[in-house]
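STRUCTURE REQUEST FORM
Protein name: GatB/YqeY domain-containing protein
Source organism: Tetragenococcus solitarius
Requested output: structure tokens
Priority: standard
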Amino acid sequence: MTLLTKLNDDMKAAMKNRDKESLQVIRMLKASLQNEKINLGRDLTEEEELTIISREMKQRRDSLAEFEEVGRKDLAEKTKGEIAIVEKYLPAQLSEEDLREIVKNAVEQTGASSSKDFGKVMGVVMPQVKGKADGKQVNAIVKELLNQN
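Status: completed
Returned output:
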């Protein structure tokens, strides 16, 4: 089942259940996928779909941080609900231990020895964890491990 088919099925279910919040988020996800499909002029690959869903998740996490920073609890709660819905369409998230192991392997693979090699390590790690880990968390772990060396 393609992601678009799953979104359509979930959208129908949300309509039947009168779940306005889920319906709104699903429609936004679907619109993002369809816009990208139109821009490319072809069907999206699974990796491209994952990239788009990950982008939507990142936007919501960034919004959540901003809402919490300025004390807008109402908008923060709404955004938390949206994040929970978007998470259903992402692969299972990696644990911190798994993420650390991937980063350690990337450091060894690239021969990174200082924070100057940050870009090399991130270039190896990010394709492996795409959609499975938050970029900020990956960034923090890479910096931490490179600063230990």
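Reviewer notes: The two ends are 45 Å apart (CA to CA). The domain at 96-148 is CATH 1.10.10.410 (Arc Repressor Mutant, subunit A).
Form closed.
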